[in-house]
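Please, structure for the following, as tokens.
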Amino acid sequence: MKLMSKFENVSSSTKTLLLAIVDVFTVIVSYYFAINFEGLEFSFRDDATQNTIISIVIMYIVALNILGVYKSIIKYSTAKDYIKIAGISLVVAAIFCTGKEFVKFFTLNTNIVILAAMVTAFLGIAVRVTIRMLVYAELNKGGANKQRLLIIGAGQSTSQIIKTLQTMLASEYVIVGIIDDDPQKLNRVMCGVKIIGTRDDIVSICEKQRIDTIFFSIENIKPKEKNKILKICDMTNAKVKIVLPLNQIISGKDFKDALRDVELEDLLGREAVVLNNKKISEYLFGKIVLVTGAGGSIGSELCRQIIKFKPKKVIMLDIYENTLYEVEMELKQNYKNAPIVTVIASVRDRNRMEEIFAKYRPQVVFHAAAHKHVPLMETSPVEAIKNNVFGTFNVVECSDKYGVEKFTFISTDKAVNPTSIMGATKRICEMIIQSKNRTSETVYSAVRFGNVLGSHGSVIPLFKKQIEMGGPVTVTHKEITRYFMLIPEAVGLILQASTFANGGEIFVLDMGEPVKIYDLAQTLIKMSGKKVPIEIVGLRKGEKLYEELLMDEEGLIKTLHEKIMISRINAPTDEEINTMLIKLKTLADETDVSRENVKKVIKEVVPTFIELDD
């Protein structure tokens, strides 16, 4: 092994000389074998043998040099280099066999020359493969500071990963083996690394081989299968990294940028949503579209997706200028001459809403503006009423007055049997749009769904930050569960649901299986490779253990899309809505209103409101 290290450190000219000497010796050994195989006695004093070997050696060495074989770095050798060696051996033999008809002192028969050429090719390749393996063995020799690595997936990207690690990052990683579910690949070798098992072997291999890190390197895999494998990885003590697509694995310098942490979307295993883009295009093409709350998580993604369908104009409205500015810059950068207008305004300001609707005359409205943080709205309940209820009422009324074709309200699963002020205000908004739909030519509908990943205030960014800081990771209750959906997925389904709207529907999105937040925290900690404690801090005001997507009296009606349903729920009468709004307006106009008084009124206007003990 030490000899291999010295070999790697000598100059290129010295390496060339050493390899040439080895190749000369290889030719001699090959002819010794071939002559004896033919039943003759090898003697270098024999003129025929001497002339043949010297001539072959000269032609062989010169050809290897001309074709650049000696310029190749052995530890980076590829199949092409080995093919060159084999080809040169056979071509030289063919030239010699042809030339010996004209050069009388070449007297060895053709069989010997061809057999010797084959042996020369074999030995020439074997020598280089052996050197390469010994060099890698030395480079990958275990060290206290090296991470023991297991790679999942024996595809093309893994081949590139191995080459990058062995050449650029050999001082940091020891590649223990590869995992692949294809039984035909088991025990085969890729770039000097053995395929040592399937997904069923991951846990035992990690334990026996003391694996520190796992690279997940499968590009084309269904989300559910990816989720299954990552859950197996979660049973080990190794930290897990996802390898980005092959074209991002450029060099050792860039390689670490081609790795990312495991995200929640990897763990959810949600399949990509298939949308009827033609239907959405027919709905949005050439239209003036207003998006309220356009700087938020859902609002901004609505703008990103809507603009792809070539609307006449997208009016992006928000009260918070910083995030709205960021979305504006992003869209202008990604879409030349993007037909966007940014408007700073509060939906609570009725006169401002009138001004905007009168000026731009939107044909389609997506109302995403709202206060959404449950604990914050528990401490400022009147603000939730002013912003969510009356802000929505203002936009609803303006949509009717200025002839909007379709209005879509973004609701939440927290509106179902609400236990929080925020959830109750969202339920009131659903009631408002259902009631208005009966008397207006505008088509009103709502789309209800659960948590979205990466949204402002989401638990996931909080967990990641807490893990990065060393903890503790705070979970409100060990049994608390939530539904999760990806932001692009949710918005795509919102657009699709809007095309189905005929008026008064509350669309419910298929959120998949609920996720236990405590288990999620444990998984994120394990995947990070850090040891971080989890602290149970108790449920916050208005917070449920389990979220629901339907109320008891509701059923579901299927739509043309398997992930979109319509709830069966009766709309309140206009009289009921007017009475409700009067009560809430009186409450909102009061000063220093207690949370208890707010909850009392909320209970009157939302019969399904559940008051939790504080």
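Residues 2-139 form one domain. The chain is about 50% helix and 15% strand.
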